[in-house]
Amino acid sequence: MVVGLSSALGVTGVAYAVDYVVFRYRTAANRQPFGQVTVMPYYAVRQKSGKTQFIFNPPEAQTCVHALFPRAGYPPCWYLQRHTEQRTDI
To answer: Contact at 8 Å (CB) between 90 and 46?
Structure first.
């Protein structure tokens, strides 16, 4: 069990390091490390009566990074493409 856990942590660490090096290379070589995905943000406002009111905003382009893990404060593009609806609970 310990060997399996340490192997999983090792593989994750190597993947994170390789992803970081590739991102830094793409940034330095100006090879489009960033992209944009159109997302649909909306608010879910809880009412006193227990019902929820939804307030939809117009679609907006959100910056993302072409990487496996989040980099430079931006989420990965593969994640944003799968989660285009962004709900904010109020």
So the answer is: yes
Residue 76: count other Cβ atoms within 10 Å of its Cβ: 18
Residue pLDDT, tens place only, 7-50 = 999 999 999 999 999 999 999 998 889 999 999 999 999 999 98
User: Which of 84, 83, 36 minimizes the C-alpha distance to 64?
Assistant: 36
Classified as helix, coil or strand, 43 is strand
All residues at 6 or more sequence positions from 54 whose CB lies less than 8 Å from its CB, including other chains: 42, 43, 44, 45
Q: Round to whole Å and give the CA distance between 62 and 28.
A: 22
Closest residue by Cα to residue 40 from 89, 85, 88, 82 = 85
- Indicate the number of domains in the chain: 1
